[in-house]
Amino acid sequence: MKKIVSLLFGLFLVVCLIDGVLDIGSGIAGRLKGVIAGGTDGNATATRLARIGGLPKRYVPGLGDVILPAAVPGVTIGPEGERLHRHLVAPEDARRRVLLLGASQSFGFSNDDDETLAAALERQLPGTLVRNFSMPGHTIPANVMMLDARLAAGEAYDRVIVVNGSVDLVRVCVLAARLPPPAATRPVIAEIARQLTSSGSRHRKDGLRQDPCATADGRETAATRVLEDLRGLLDYAQRRNVRVTFVLPPVPFGTPAEAEVVRDPAAVGAYATALGPALTAFRQKLAAAGLPDVLDLSEAFPSDGRGLFSDFYGHLSDAGNQLLARRIAEDLNRQLPPAPLPD
To answer: Sign of dihedral through CA atoms 166, 170, 173, 176?
Structure first.
């Protein structure tokens, strides 16, 4: 009898283990899908995800995904992941060269090639060549690695523009709260026993982590972490004798523009609650730090943001890119004389 009971219990554990592994995989996929696409216009978001997600990629440790050379309708990727557009000036005739880095916003997640921020910057900076090596999902440390790769390739730029910061806060404040807990290193049975007997788990009953930015202390920690990453970027640029302008871009959380593009107000509320206060904390730290070459454009758009965002995750429309490019160009031209027009 004991052998039968032991056998049944062993089979039960095997089934639980297999079921748990499958649940973890499907849970990660489902939650990531919800984080990326939940609450937006489903058809438009699905189209953009399919267009960008279908591009070939390779994973670079410490950097993340780098899109390989490819072309699909509206999106052209050149050597080493550069997002291409029709330049207004030939490379050999350019009076000024700018490198654009960032995440999906400056990559142009929602835009065709000639509607990206890089294309808009060229229109605002006549005689300037803008190369776009932004990449969806890249954080500030990844931007440093991409800059290092471009310099190692022997490229030279009059200015490097990094449009980022909100992605870094999203990773700390939003994604970390929605992904399942990391796999335990202890034996499975011991972990099950610990969870069954523990009365002070740091995870919610649904198995997700508590939002690390739900408290003032958590937001302070998140803002400090992103600020230190920014200091690392500026320190690296100074050591390499490269002039960097860091741009904190606008985001639409908490604006009436959400009504146009969001079908699930609860999803907006979750993002606004997590990211809005964290962004405020980061902006306060930026102002107090007084770092050179930092341009806070997080409130550069009109209060409603109408027509400037394609979704409430901060991806810009063509009009949004044009307005953001104009604000960046105004700052850049105050520091550097405008490049002379080509003959």
So the answer is: negative
CB 97 within 8 A of CB 131: yes
User: Residue 290 is part of a domain; what is its CATH number?
Assistant: 3.40.50.1110
Question: What's residue 337's pLDDT?
Answer: 58
What tokens were used for 122? 């060229």
User: Which pLDDT score, from 0 to 100, does residue 163 have?
Assistant: 98
Sign of CA dihedral 47, 310, 100, 278: negative
Range of the domain at 310: 38-198+207-335
DSSP, collapsed to helix, strand or coil, labels residue 215 as coil
Residue ranges in the chain modelled with pLDDT below 70: 1-46, 174-211, 253-272, 303-304, 336-343
Contact 142, 173 (CB under 8 A): no
Q: What is the number of domains present in the chain?
A: 1
pLDDT at 65: 84
- Does a structural domain hold residue 15? no
pLDDT number for residue 4:
54
- Amino acid letter for position 15: V
Residue 196 has what pLDDT? 39
Asked, for residue 149, whether it belongs to a domain, the answer is yes
Confirm whether 90 is domain-assigned: yes
Domain membership of residue 3 (yes or no) is: no
Pairing of strands 128-132, 96-102: parallel
